[in-house]
Amino acid sequence: MNRLLQKLFKHTSAPTAPVPPKPIIIVSGLPRSGTSMMMKILEAGGLPVLTDALRTADADNPKGYYEYERVKQLDKGDQAWLAEAQGKAVKVISALLMHLPPAHQYRVIFMQRNLAEVLASQRKMLAHRGEQANAANDAEVAPLFEKHVQATKTWLQTQPNITMLEIDYNQLMADPAPYLQAINRFLGNTLSIERMAQAVDPELYRNRSER
Fold this sequence. Notes:
Layout: H1 2-12, E1 24-29, H2 35-45, E2 89-91, E3 106-112, H3 115-128, H4 138-157, E4 162-168, H5 169-174, H6 176-186, H7 193-198
Parallel strand pairs: 1-2, 1-3, 3-4
């Protein structure tokens, strides 16, 4: 009798609903716009991050770069790793965002920073590597960066599988609390704001520019 009931239950029970895939959390922006710090903030808050630690910490990023090497191959068609990124944060520079395949859902935290500070930080990094860095080129580069950022944000806003949260790096450093709360809401209110706040390190805010 028990076996008969088990068979009946097995055939009449409702099928289990498939679990929807988790969105991929993308931290993006221009290089040197605060993306590494945002990755550290998310990790501190309890969000898993996708990194490979191949690029180690140095004078330019003492707390680490939080990079995943395969991201750099997005424009060459390497997209298989995105399945592993579901439910995790991964850093993708703004120039590669348009190569994200539409098969996934993304929540993009887009970092913006005073452009003079971004350019100064990039020059300093090049100098540390022994490469030529000329501040005179900033006047030519700045409008190109501004155009790129605006075009990228416009594209993000038109994608049905992408939601975006813009974070001003300079304001975040000046008054973290409202931005950390906004990030937590954006990601489903599952993070520890207290631990996120501890990851905001004012000592890493260098190359300041008066605005």
